[in-house]
UniProtKB/TrEMBL annotation, chain A:
Domain of life of the organism encoding this protein: Bacteria
All copies of domain FAD-binding PCMH-type, residue ranges: 1-174
Region: Disordered, residue numbers: 364-385
Polar residues: bias regions: 376-385
Keywords, alphabetical: FAD, Flavoprotein
InterPro entries: FAD-bd_PCMH (IPR016166), FAD-bd_PCMH-like_sf (IPR036318), FAD-bd_PCMH_sub2 (IPR016169), FAD-linked_Oxase-like_C (IPR016164), Oxid_FAD_bind_N (IPR006094)
Signal peptide (residue range): none
Listed name of the protein: Glycolate oxidase FAD binding subunit
Provenance organism: Actinomycetospora cinnamomea
GO molecular function list: catalytic activity; FAD binding
Automatic annotation (TrEMBL), chain B:
Cited InterPro entries: 4Fe4S_Fe-S-bd, 4Fe4S_Fe_S_CS, Cys_rich_dom, Glc_ox_4Fe-4S, Helical_ferredxn
GO molecular function, one term: glycolate dehydrogenase activity
Cofactor binding annotation: Binds 2 [4Fe-4S] clusters.
Taxonomic source organism: Actinomycetospora cinnamomea
Biased composition annotated in UniProt, kind: Basic and acidic residues: 14-27
Protein name: Glycolate oxidase iron-sulfur subunit
Cofactor: [4Fe-4S] cluster
Automatic annotation (TrEMBL), chain C:
Name used for this protein in its record: Glycolate oxidase
Cofactor requirement: FAD
Single GO MF descriptor: oxidoreductase activity
Record has Isomerase as a keyword: no
Phylogenetic classification of the source organism: Bacteria, Bacillati, Actinomycetota, Actinomycetes, Pseudonocardiales
Statement: the UniProt record of this protein carries the keyword Cell inner membrane: no
Amino acid sequence: MTDTITPRSLDELRDAVIDRPGTIRIAGAGTAHDWAGTPEPADTVLDTTGLSGIVTHNPGDMTVEVWAGTPFGALQTDLGEHHQRVAVDPARAAEGATLGGLFATADAGPRSLQYGSLRDLVIGATIVLADGTVARSGGHVIKNVAGYDLTKLLHGAQGTLGVLARLVLRLHPTPQVTATVAASCERSAMAGLARRVADSPVEPTAVEWHAGRLLSLLEGSESGAEARARRLAEILGSDAAVLAPDDATQAWEAHAAAVRARSDDRAVFRFGVTPSELPRVLDALESATGVTASPRTGVATVALPADADVVATAHRRVAEAGGTSTLRQRPAGAALPAFGPAPASATVLRAVAASLDPDQRFGRGRLAPWLPLPDQTGQPTGVSA
Amino acid sequence: MTTHPTPGPTLDFSSERGEKPAPERADLLGGAGPSEFGSFDAHHPPAQELLDDCVHCGFCLPTCPTYALWGEEMDSPRGRIYLMEMAEKGEIPLEGSFTTHIDRCLGCMACVTACPSGVQYDRLLEATRPQIERNVPRSRSDRWFREAIFALFPYKRRLRAASLGGALYQRLRPKSMDKLLARVPERFGRLVAMESLLPPVSVRDAFRRMPERTPGIGPRRGRVGLLTGCVQDVFFHPVNEATARVLAAEGWDVIAPREQACCGALGLHAGREAEAIERAKKLIAVFERAQVDTIATNVAGCGSSMKEYGELLADDPEWAERAAAFAAKVRDISEVVDETLADARARRHPIEARVVYHDACHLGHAQKIRSEPRRVLRAIPGVELLELPEAEICCGSAGIYNMLQPQAASDLGHRKAGNIRGTGADLLVTANPGCLLQIRKYLGADLPMLHPIQLVDASIRGVRPPEMG
Amino acid sequence: MPERTMEAPHGGTGNDAPGAATPPVAVGPELARAFRDVLPADLVITDEVGRRSYECDGLTGFRQIPALVVLPRDADEVAACVRVCARHGVPFVARGAGTGLSGGAMPVADGVVISLQKLRRILEIDVENRRAVLEPGVYNLEISKAAAPYGLYYAPDPSSQQVCTIGGNVAENSGGAHCLKYGFTTNHVLEMEVVLADGSVVTLGGPTGEQAGPDLRGLFIGSEGTLGICTKVTVRLLQTPETVRTVLADFPSIEAAGDTVGDIVDAAIIPAAVEMMDSLSMEASEAATGAGLTVDAPAALIIELDGPADEVEAEFSHLTAICERHGATRMHVPAEAEERQKVWKGRKAAFAAVGRISPDYIVQDGVVPRTRLAEVLTRIAEMGRDAGLRVANVFHAGDGNLHPLVLYSEAAGEHDAAEKLSTDIAELCVELGGSLSGEHGIGTDKACSMPRMFSSDDLAVMHRVRHAFDPDDRCNPGKVFPTPRLCGERPGPYRPHPLEEAGVIERL
Ligand SMILES: Cc1cc2nc3c(=O)[nH]c(=O)nc-3n(C[C@H](O)[C@H](O)[C@H](O)COP(=O)(O)OP(=O)(O)OC[C@H]3O[C@@H](n4cnc5c(N)ncnc54)[C@H](O)[C@@H]3O)c2cc1C
Ligand code: SF4
Ligand code: SF4
C-alpha cells in the first residue's frame, strides 16, 4: 500500500523522511510523473505541494527564496508585482508544475537560449537526504563559490538523491516589451535562417522553430525591443514579419502546447545535440511528429510512436551525434527506454548516489538503467567509483 | 669585493635543457654560511625592496618566452624572482639550478611590461648576472665559448675579419655542409648556431665607413651624434647610411665620431659588468668631445643600455654626473624622427606595401618605445601596418642568447617566423640587428627584412626599398 | 618566510589526516622513476630549487614543498600521472597558472604537483556552434583572442584573464567584471573531460544545456581541484555585442556610488559590468597604468552597457541621468575601444598595482547582498581603523562582491593583524547574509572559516560527495574542508572547532 504524506514545514519534511521506512517517491504537481525512468512502486509518496510559497524576497537584491512545492506560475505572478521574474519558461509551468519538479527534471523553455535553465539561475538550496540530514549549499547571493555546488546535483536528478525543500533563485527584471518576429520556413531551412538571426546584432532571447515558422523573441526596453524586431524582420526579408501582440502570444502558446502534448500512442522525446547536428538528427528520426526545435541551442522535443525499438533507436542516434536524450511523457503503461547508452560518467553517478542515498530510497527506478535498481538483497548494484 | 664560496661538485652548467639536476641545496653552502646577502656577495646584490615588489600574481608569465616554451615555474619571471629571493635568504646556492634558470632568461623584459606591480626585473637581472659571473665557476667549454663571443663581437675590426671570412665562406661553402652541420652532436649546437647566424654581407659593405659629419639640409634642427655600433656597422652598414640620410634630410647635422667603439650592451646584458663600465666610459668621453645635443642610435639593445649608463656608473663619483648627462641625451632613432613628424621637412614618397613591424624587446619592453616607430612608418603614404600575434614574445635573439642557448632560441625563432608568415605581409621591419639576424635565419628568404629607417629613407628618396626588388 | 609556512593538512602521518587508511606514502627515487616511465625525464622535476618554485600560488602566505612536480603534455599523460599517484598512494594537486588567491594550488606535503602548463592547445573554435574546445592550460584571454576574428568571445573575464587558465577557472568557478550580466564559468562551460582520482577518464556535461541525469558538470565546476583534473573543456562563445558604452563616473562619497548602483538595478538596467573603486585603489592603479582615474575622488564607478545599439543608447542616457542625480563629479565616457581598454586596464590591474603603495597586502574576497553594500563598507572602514591598517576597496558592485585589500607591512610585524582583519571581513560578509568567497575560492586560506557559513551537516554532505569521486582523498586533500590539523593551528575564534563538538571531525 502506498501512503501519501504532505509535509508543511522543513521539520515535517525531515521527520517524514526519517519516520517512514522503505522507499519514497517524491511528487510535486505531477506534471512530469511519467518522465524519465519508470519509478518502482514506492512505500510512500512524498507530496511537496504543502511546502509552498515565498520564504524571502529581497527585490533590491534580486533574489528570492521559495519552497520547492511552489507552483512556478504563482511565483512568477508574485514576482511580477515587483517587475521581476525567474527568467525561464518551461512549457509545463502552465499546467501548475512546481519549482522543485521543474528543477528535478531539468526542464527549460525557449528562453534558455539567453538565460540557460534553472541550474543557471539557482544560487542555493536546502535539501533533505535519505538519512534525514538537512543540508544547505550555496546561499543568498548571486556570486558565491564557497563549498561544493551541491544544488546542481539535484538538477536533473529526477527525484533521486534527495528532496528539495527550498530553492534560492536569482531574478531578472521583467522586460518592458517583448516582440516576436516570425519567418515562415521549412524545417530543412531552419538552421540557415536561425544562423542569420544569431549573426544579426539584435540578440534574441529565444529562437524556436515550430509548425513551419521560425519564431524569434526580442525582449527589452520600450523603444529598443520594437526597433530590434523591425530590424530583424528587415534582415530576414519578405517572409518575416513582426507579429501583433495577440498573434505572438498565440504562437508561443502553440509552441508550448506542442512540447507538453500528450497522446495515447506517442511518447515525447527530448534531446540536445550541437546545433549543426540538429537537422541531421531530426531527419533521422523519421517517425517524429509535433516537432519543436531550438536551432541555436540544439535542443528539440518530438513525439515518437510509443514503441520500444523506435525510442531505443532514437536514443542511439542522439548518442552517436554526441548528444543527450530523455524520454518524457508517454502512454500509461508503455515500457520504453528512458535514456540512451550509459556514459562513462555513470560510474560517478552511481558513486554519488551511493554516498547520498545508499539504499536508493528516493525515486527508485527514475534513473534506471544508468542508476541500476538495487538487487534482491536490497544492496545497490553496480556501485563503484 | 667578497667572493662567496660555492663549494660542492662542479657540474657542467652549460645551461642546456635536460641536463643533470642541480646539487641538492643549501647544505652545500659549506662552513662559510650565508652572508648578509645570503648566497650573493656584497657587491650590489639584487635589492630586497625590488624583490619585495613582486606580489606573485603571475601576470608576467604568458609573455615570458621561456615560460611560453616550457611552462616551468623556474623559467618564468615570477619563478626567477622567487629564486633570487631564496638565494638572497641563503636558502639555495647560486651554483647549479639557480644559474641554469637565470642563464636561460633572455633579458627581453617582456615581464617588465606585463607587470602591474612595477617590478623592475631589469634591475634585478642586472644585479644578479654579475653575481653569477663572479661567483659561479663555469665549465671549461662554457667559459671558452663566452670568451670567444666577447672577444669577437664588440670589436669592429675583428668582426670585419670574421665577416670577410663569412662572406667568402658563404659563397664557397658546399651545399652538403648544411646537412653535415645538422648532424653534429648536441654539444656543438652552439657553434652551429653561431655559424648560421653570420649574415650575408658584402665585403664592400663590411668595410664601408661612415663619414664623420653629414651636414643637415635646410634650417638646422641641431647636432645629432650617431652611434654606429659594432655589429650594426659591419653587418648592417646600409642602415647607418640610411639613418644619417634621414636625419640630414630632416635638418640635423649628423656626427659619427670615428673613434667610437662598442657601447658595452652585449657585455652588460650578459653580466660582464666591469667590461661594460669600461666601454661606457670610453663612449661617454667620445660623445662629450663631439658636443652633440642628442645621441641617436638605431640599435635597440645599444639604446637601452646607453640610457642606463647613469645607473651603471652611479657609484663612481668621477663619472656619475657625466654618465647621467649622457644618458639623458640618448634617443632611439624612431623617437628622433617621430618628434619631427609634426613639421616634417622631407617629403615622403608613397611605398605600397603591407608591412609588419616586429617590436625589438630592447625597444618595446626595455625602452617602452612602441608607438613612435609605428607613427614613423604610418607617415609613409601607402604603407599598411600589420600587427603581429604574440608581438610581446621575444624572437629568441636577445643579444648573444641565440649563441648561448641555441635550442630555446631556435624554438622561439620558429615560433616568431610562423607568426610573421601568418600576417601575409610583404615586408618585415624591426629596429635591432640581432632580431634581423635571428628572424632571417628562421624565415629564410620568404620576406624582405629592413630596419624601419631604411623604409623611411627609401620613401624620402623616392626609390624602391632595398631588398624589395 | 619559513615562519609563515603553514604545514599542509595532509601529512600522511597523523591519524587525523584524511587518507590515513591508504598505504604509507612512498616518496623518493622510486616515485620519480615511476613518473619517468610515463614522462620524459626532464618533465619530472625533482631538484629542490625546481620543487620550491612550486611551493605556493598567488597567495604566498601558505607554502609547502611538493615531493615532485610533473609536467605532462597531454590528457593521456595526465591520466598516466594520476595512475602513478594512485598506485603509490600519493596525493596530487593540479596546477594551472598558479594565480589562485586562496592557496588552492598549494602543494601537499609528500604530494605531487601536476602542472597543466603544457596543455595549452586550443583544439577547436567551432564558429557554427559557437563553442571552443580547449586544453586546460589555455589562458582565459587566449580564448577570446582566438575567437575574435569570428566576431565571438568568451564571456567570463577574471581580472587575471591574461594569465589564469581555463582549467583553473573551472576549478574555481571564476567570475569577472562582466559576470553580472553574463554569468560565471559554470554558465559557460558545456562539457568537460575529467581524470578521476583512480586515473579513469569521464566526460561530464554535454553539447547543450540539455541534461540527462544529475548535473555532475555543475558539481565539478568550483570544486577547487578536489574531484579530479579537468583535461579538456568545451565552452560557449558569445557574439561580440554590437555596441559597448562605458562610463567612468566619480562620486563625492562611497555611499553616493552605492546608491547609484541600487538605482540602476531598480531601473531594470542590467549593465554588463558595475565596478567600484575607492581612492586608495585608484591611487595604486593610476600609478601602474595611467588609466585616467581621478586619484582624489572618494569613489568611482565603472559602468558598462553592451548589446544592440537600440537598447544601449536608450539605457545609457538613463544611466548617466542616474549618476548625475547622485552627484557624480566627473563622467568620462571613453570614445574609442582603445580608450575603454585603458579604463578597464586601470580596474583589472588594481590588485597587483596595490603592490606599489604597500609593501604587502592581502586580497580579500567576500560577498554581501547588494543592498547591504554601504553597511559593509562602513563596517570595514571601522574595522580597519580599529586595527590601524589601511583597507583599499575595489569590487564588483553589481553583484555585491567585495575585494577589500588589507595593506600592511610584513617588516613592521603587521602580518598577523592584517590576516585577522582580512578574515574578520570575510566572516562579516557571512554575517550580513553573504558568502565567504565570490570568486577566489576557499582553498587553504578560508577552509577554517567554512563553519561560519555552513553547518557541520552541510559540510559532511559535501564531504560525502567528495568521497564518491575520490574515496582516498588523493585530489588536492586539505583544501576547502576545515581540518583540525590546519585549523587547530590557527589563531582566532576557531577553537574548539564546531565540528569537533559535533563529533563529525573524524570524518573530515
Ligand atoms: C591579480 C589577480 C586578480 C584576480 N582576479 C580574479 C577575478 O577577477 N575573478 C576570479 O574569479 N579570480 C580572480 N583571481 C584568482 C585566480 O586568477 C582564479 O582563481 C583563476 O581561476 C585561477 O586560475 P589558475 O590557472 O591560476 O589556477 P591555479 O591557481 O593554478 O589553481 C587554482 C585551483 O584550481 C585547481 N586546478 C587548476 N587547474 C585545474 C584543472 N585543470 N583541473 C582541476 N583543477 C585544477 C588547482 O588545484 C587549484 O585548486 C585573481 C588572481 C590574481 C592574482
Ligand atoms: S626578461 Fe624575458 S626571458 Fe627573462 S624572465 Fe623576463 S620575460 Fe622571461
Ligand atoms: S607580474 Fe610582476 S608582481 Fe606579478 S609575478 Fe610577475 S613580476 Fe611578480
